[in-house]
Amino acid sequence: MHAISILKEQLASPKRVAIVMHTKPDADAFGTSLALALFLRAQGHMVQVIAPTHYPNFLSWLPAADTVFVAENEDEETIMQHIEPIDVLFCVDFSTTSRAGTLAFLLQKTNVLKVIIDHHTEPEDFADILIWDIKAAASAQVAFELFKEWGGEEQITKDIATCLYVGILTDTNSFKNPNTTAQTHRIVAELIDRGVDTAGNQRLIYDNKTLNKLLFFSFAVSQRLVVLPEFHTAYFVIQKEDYKRYDLQNGDTEGLVDYALSLKGTLLGAVLKEKDDTIYLSLRSVGDVPANLIAKKYFQGGGHKNAAGGTSKFSLTETVDHFESIVRSGQFKFQYTNET
């Protein structure tokens, strides 16, 4: 790839590098950022990984996770002290400035080389180099191809492979999403060849819940689930007091949306979460229901066709009413078949 050749040339000698992931980072953003940091440090570069907001606690075991600087609640001066000066800025798993949150100001810096590593649609024009593949199942898959082209297979260590595997595992919903291709499985096989403990990693990701989280899921399914069977839709409404009641930590609502989508006959699943003065939406769909278009058009968000997210500044009640009106409007395809 021409872009990779340019990047290799720019990083032929040691540089000062910052790696930024999107707000509320998921395992793909977090794992890919860590893998990139490990890869670049092995080549002699000075690297600082920055998360705009706190990352999920269940990812804290990943290699080099303890080196990540969380910028949440920090002012610009403090943030710049951690990364100034830098030569190169990597933006991982996002390609729109809004996804950088309070770190968006970094994308306006004119004296650094800006590089995007991503697989989402419609990237904005703020980067100098775009390492991007909309057909990739995860940004971790894009990074794997980058590492092979850049440094060769021998540069992908067990720790790097572990970070990439977790990114692919979660962004494909354990290889269940339609974006999982034969190439995705081939890459995972190569990661396993490098020593990834697939069973152990999956247990750390999926079978490592706190009692509070387990009790919360039980409560959510029994008390917070709304089903609209005639529109093949199910969603959860999580209120502020629910967070306090179950002492929920970062990442404790992860995976809840899949319970909505797992209901037989459901084509669109959602979680609407009330936090501070913002309502956060997670959307999952199957078939032709465009979760990304719903998020982009109505909730200032985006993502993939079958996995997206967004936000609302209206009240929780208003947001729920708005969401239901969208579903009931009939403008999106909600046709269920046995093959769906």
What does this entry look like structurally?
The structure is a single chain. This protein is 37% helix and 19% strand. The strands form two sheets. A six-stranded parallel β-sheet has the order 3-2-1-4-5-6, with helices on one face. A six-stranded mixed β-sheet has the order 7-8-9-10-12-11. Helix 5 (158-171) runs antiparallel to helix 6 (182-193). The chain has helices spanning 2-10, 27-42, 76-83, 139-151, 158-171, 182-193, 198-206, 211-223, 240-245, 256-261, 291-298, 316-328, and strands at residues 16-21, 46-51, 69-70, 88-92, 113-118, 129-132, 225-228, 233-238, 268-275, 278-285, 302-304, 307-312. Strand 7 and strand 8 form a beta hairpin. The model has no long low-confidence stretch (mean pLDDT 93). By secondary structure, it is an alpha/beta fold. It has twelve helices and twelve strands.
Compute the average pLDDT: 93
Which H/E pattern describes the elements?
HEHEEHEEEHHHHHEEHHEEHEEH
The helix count comes to 12
Distance between the termini: 36 Å
Quick one: how many beta strands? 12
Shape: globular
Task: Give the DSSP E fraction (strand runs of 2 or more residues).
Answer: 15-25%
Structural class: alpha/beta
What can be said about the biggest beta sheet?
6 strands, parallel
Unreliable segments of 5+ consecutive residues: none
List the strand order in the largest sheet: 3-2-1-4-5-6
Radius of gyration: 20 Å
Helicity level: 25-40%
